[in-house]
Specification:
Layout: E1 2-7, H1 12-22, E2 27-33, E3 41-43, E4 46-49, H2 52-59, E5 63-66, H3 70-82, E6 86-89, H4 96-109, E7 113-115, H5 121-134, E8 139-146, H6 156-166, E9 189-190, E10 196-201, E11 207-215, E12 218-226, H7 233-245, E13 249-251
Parallel strand pairs: 1-2, 1-5, 2-4, 5-6, 6-7, 7-13, 8-10
Antiparallel strand pairs: 3-4, 8-11, 9-10, 11-12
Helix pairs in contact: 3-4, 5-6
Length: 257
């Protein structure tokens, strides 16, 4: 039985994680951390604790699953690794420098650490398919659409997708004319491989992404839509199990599917 703690347990994703862990035969929820609704019972015998380090010292979880805000998740991960606990992180927005710091801490502590921009198996397949297509197209752009409470842009999924596509092709604007933006930002942000990423934030969306590929006479569209947060739970539990059993730093669910 893998002992699990959940950070951000009262958030929308946190509540889904708590429920998934409590309903699983492979995991035991031993602590839940948040800054709101302190002392609320979220599972039999488990109440909200406002102090992550204190919760770790009391409950001694094997893994902590974190879906808090980008500004908090880095410090939370450091607390976990410094106290012998393996973090599983679903929050996006970590800089490359902070990812490298956590990678170094993971290796030094001989623990596991798992970070995924997206835990939906369908989204991971979308990313894999985009990488496959990138080998055959020299023009591509990414449109990602999320609810208007998402703070970081572009999404971690879009960034990861672009990175995977760039492994197959170094530039995706072949044949484009010289452009002039009448309104700054009209063409979105551009990656090192010249993949333009467009971020939409609007109520009504949860999480969607479309990758567009074009060449003479054809357009290929690869799209994934998340309509319920339950779609992330199989991937979250798979990552938690993997992290409990492996002493390595992993970035992306695609690495263990």
């Amino acid at each position: 039985m893998i002992k699990v703690g959940v950070c951000g347990a009262m958030g929308r994703m946190g509540k889904e994680v708590v429920n998934a862990v409590c309903c699983s035969n492979d995991f035991e929820l031993v602590c839940a951390v948040d800054v709101v609704e302190l002392d609320t019972e979220v599972c039999e015998g488990v109440h909200i604790n406002g102090d992550l380090k204190g919760a770790i010292e009391i409950a001694k979880p094997d893994v902590v699953i974190d879906f808090t805000q980008p500004k908090n998740v880095f410090e939370n991960a450091k607390i976990c690794l410094e106290n012998g606990v393996r973090p599983v992180i679903g929050t996006t927005g970590l800089s490359e420098a902070r990812l490298n710091t956590l990678r170094e801490m993971t290796e030094k502590s001989n623990l596991g650490c798992f970070i995924a921009p997206n835990f939906s198996t369908g989204a991971v397949l979308m990313m894999k398919f985009a990488k496959m297509a990138a080998k055959y197209f020299e023009n591509a752009e990414i449109i990602e659409l999320h609810h208007n409470q998402k703070k970081d842009a572009p999404s971690g999924t879009a960034i990861k997708t672009a990175q995977m596509m760039a492994e197959e092709n170094s530039s995706f604007t072949t044949g484009n004319c010289d452009e002039t933006e009448i309104i700054a930002g009209s063409r979105g942000g551009s990656t090192n491989a010249n993949i333009h990423i467009h971020s939409v934030r609007m109520p009504g969306y949860m999480a969607s992404q479309e990758v567009l590929f074009g060449s003479a006479g054809q357009i290929l569209s690869i799209r994934h839509d998340s309509v319920d947060r339950k779609c992330y739970m199989p991937g979250v539990l798979l990552a938690a199990k993997y992290t409990a059993e492996h002493n390595e730093f992993v970035y992306g669910l695609d690495n263990i599917l």
